[in-house]
Prior knowledge:
Layout: E1 5-11, E2 16-21, H1 28-31, E3 36-42, H2 47-56, H3 61-68, E4 75-78, E5 83-92, E6 99-108, E7 112-117, H4 125-132, H5 143-178, H6 182-213, H7 225-287, H8 303-324
Parallel strand pairs: 3-7
Antiparallel strand pairs: 1-2, 1-3, 4-5, 5-6, 6-7
Helix pairs in contact: 5-6, 5-7, 6-7, 7-8
Amino acid sequence: MERTEIVVFDYDGDHIREQVVASVDECLQFRDAPTMTWVDVVGLHDVEVLRKIGECFDIHPLVLEDILNTEQRPKIEISEDALFIVLKMLSVDERTGEVMGEQISLVVGRSFLISFQEAPGDVFENVRKRLRDAHRRIRERGTDYLAYTLLDAIVDNYFFVLESLGERIEGYEDELMDDPQTQTLRELYKLKREAIFLRKSVWPVREVLSVLGRGDSKIVEEGTLPYVRDVYDHTIQVIDTVESFRDLIAGMHDTYLSNVSNKMNEVMKVLTVFASIFIPLTFLTGLYGMNFDYMPELHWHWSYPVLLVTMLVVGVGMAVHFYKRGWL
């Protein structure tokens, strides 16, 4: 991104204000307002902007450091007057179908929530629509409920990612049964890496939601806890699906190796049969290819055609025998 974009939603039960702010200084008017404020920061390349946001909302420098480090493991940190949550927002590349991940960091205060995204494009559009609707519950609740809706949007999107991955797995299953190629093995390794990435991204989310659902933070109201526990249940479903996909991919890899081995066995069987047929024929030609003087068959008038007929009978007889045994 060329510049960091900051979008502010300031709302209460009766009014909402949505605007793109040009500088961090414009956020100061929302810091101590009695309304609820969602500051959505898109783009993490400008360290100075993030530093000013940290000063404006009293964010600890170590938290800002974690926000800038986009390889963080999903986690939650609870302080006296704030929550810090890190998650992975997953998406599917429309061109390649591969799973991609982006770090989402949430800083939740008593009257504000700041979300930090790496790049434009997210799964929060439905949350924005709910905020614009004056009759929705989210307008009457605090920032803890807003944090829940953002977490719920991220976790619900996991199901769409898993659906896309499941369709790819089904496609490669059919290919494995029909005609597995070397490219199929490469695709299976890609699926395996994506399943591992999914597991690393989703598994810690269970711990985050478990801690959040215990109510250890004073910011999270008692009425919000059941909703958080519901998202926790969805996360367990996602984890179970990911583990199932990992088992499926491992089984597909074994199936590919078995199919390749079976094909090789078929080839070796055919070659062995032909070699077995030609062994006695080679013996006959080698026997009568010796240049001894006292070999009476060498001087017979019909020796050559008799030998050819013998070789033909031996070859055909062995081929028929192998066919009856199911080797051909």
